[in-house]
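> call design_seq(struct)
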């Protein structure tokens, strides 16, 4: 049985992190480890993490400085011993069959990276909806173009990666100008290397939106996305046929930034 290493960065997550941890420990798939990394939280997150320290599947790490989510994920990867790496954010949860589902997908496919559906829970509007990447199958053979010109529809809390390709992709960025889009940068680098992405329609987790979610800070997120994509769009002169998509993408980012400023 292949082993999963589940990496959960924690920063001031005392309100939500217990449920996230419990959702991992409730997995029906047995061969996994859970690596919790406290990124110098100023609340009682560390106290909560220490409650789970006696569990045989749990490893608790703590940073002496606040390093950011990219560096914190990297610290977890460095100590991971699994065949697959999975990530879960401190405010999301998995259903009990998440790892079982991922293990079957890896077994039945040649995928390097898989991503499943999530149920999006908006705690501000008190609504919920299924999140499923649109027309994913159309883009599985050209994920770099899909990610670059359309949108990042891969949730980090729904993704699992083969360990050997994690080493090929490298570390998550620690560039502060890319705050909020560290995972987007990671997927782009993976797609550039022609790694095989596969989407599964299995609904085995929840993505939560609340007042402290990074996704709520639209202006900062779009500014980081601009910084990231501008590096790749410098190659546009080499692909003039994509120029319209280039302009369309900037229009989307600009509109989102303006919306964030107005709100």
């Amino acid at each position: 049985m292949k082993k999963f290493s589940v990496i959960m960065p924690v920063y001031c997550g005392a309100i939500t992190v217990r449920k996230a941890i419990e959702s991992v420990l409730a997995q029906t798939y047995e061969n996994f480890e859970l690596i919790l990394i406290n990124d110098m939280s100023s609340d009682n997150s560390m106290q909560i993490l220490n409650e789970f320290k006696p569990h045989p599947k749990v490893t608790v790490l703590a940073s002496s400085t606040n390093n950011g989510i990219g560096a914190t994920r990297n610290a977890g990867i460095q100590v991971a011993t699994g065949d697959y790496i999975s990530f879960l954010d401190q405010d999301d949860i998995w259903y009990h069959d998440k790892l079982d589902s991922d293990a079957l997908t890896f077994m039945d496919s040649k995928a390097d990276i898989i991503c499943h559906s999530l149920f999006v829970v908006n705690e501000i509007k008190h609504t919920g909806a299924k999140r499923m990447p649109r027309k994913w199958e159309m883009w599985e053979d050209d994920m770099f173009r899909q990610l670059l010109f359309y949108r990042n529809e891969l949730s980090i809390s729904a993704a699992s990666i083969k360990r050997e390709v994690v080493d090929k992709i490298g570390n998550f960025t620690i560039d502060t100008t890319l705050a909020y889009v560290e995972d987007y940068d990671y997927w782009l680098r993976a797609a550039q290397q022609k790694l095989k992405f596969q989407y599964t329609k299995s609904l085995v987790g929840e993505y939560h939106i609340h007042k402290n979610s990074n996704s709520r800070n639209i202006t900062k997120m779009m500014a980081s996305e601009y910084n990231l994509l501008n590096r790749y769009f410098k190659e546009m002169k080499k692909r003039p046929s994509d120029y319209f998509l280039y302009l369309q993408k900037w229009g989307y980012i600009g509109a989102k930034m303006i919306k964030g400023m107005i709100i």
